[in-house]
Amino acid sequence: MALKNLLFLAVLLPMSLLAQQEQPVSATYLYYPPLNVSREQARNIAIERARVQALADAFGTLVESYDASVTSTVNGKSDSRHYNFGESTVKGEWLADTKDPVITERLEDDMLQVEAQVWGLAREIVSTPIDIHAVVLKNGLTERHADHFFHEGDQLYLSFRSPSKGYLSVYLMDDDGTVSCMLPYKDDDDGVFRVKGNKDYLLFSERHAEKGEPCDEYVLTCDRQGREQNLLYVIFSPNKFVKANDCEPSARVKVDDEMLNQPRSLSFEDFERWLLRCRRTDHRMQVIVNPLTIEK
User: Fold this and answer.
1) Which residues, given as ranges, of the chain have pLDDT below 70?
2) CA–CA dist 6, 214 (Å, integer)
3) Which of 243, 238, 53, 51 is nearest to 131 (CA)?
4) Which CATH architecture fits 3-18+127-295?
5) How far apart are the first and last CA of the chain?
6) Are residues 175 and 231 in contact, defined by beta-carbon separation less than 8 angstroms?
């Protein structure tokens, strides 16, 4: 995968204490994908559900229930209704893989089964995370263009909002394990992107960039024949953090006789080490991982 980059100007806790709160976790999950789910999607879903299972096994789940009674009077007749709402969430968060996930596929009674085994480092969630809003958009600037399936040449945008001010980074990992820094923008030389609270951001759109501030726009390409799976990392914290130490790409990519200017990048191993280090020292940092499918 390559990105077409259009450039525009537009109290730390002790490491020993944090380490005590981390623990190794593992789990196996068996997924039966429906016919409309591709094998790549089935593998991703199985891995994600195995991670959730590992977190639930280690830290348990939080079940919240809300009850409400509504009484109304119409034409002298009283009507009372009772409502119950419930949701369940795991009480832990996945920090990093300690081993690569293992996927096993098999057929049983002509039905595909996808089994995922995962091993990782996790910790218990001890505070309520900030309710951030991040939506991937394709070829459009409103949330009706939300999508995770792209064709080569499609443009990618991100809609983002936070109820509080903070700092934001966005990274894209391709099939080859190269991680590209999409935000902060390439010409930002302080390594941070500040966001205001209660403000709607349309990222990767030059038209919506702050006046005089740099902005990069991105078109997705597919390096493989057929399709490939990418991961888009949206990283937010109310605490200041600086992007990973990346570097300029060694060469530009040529697509349809056009040379593409690529964003700065680093290996997935270096990115994972940086992200784990950030999360160990910042319990309020949030990471949203969006799987993207790109097709030729």
Assistant:
1) 1-20, 62-88, 250-260
2) 11
3) 238
4) Alpha-Beta Complex (3.90)
5) 10
6) no
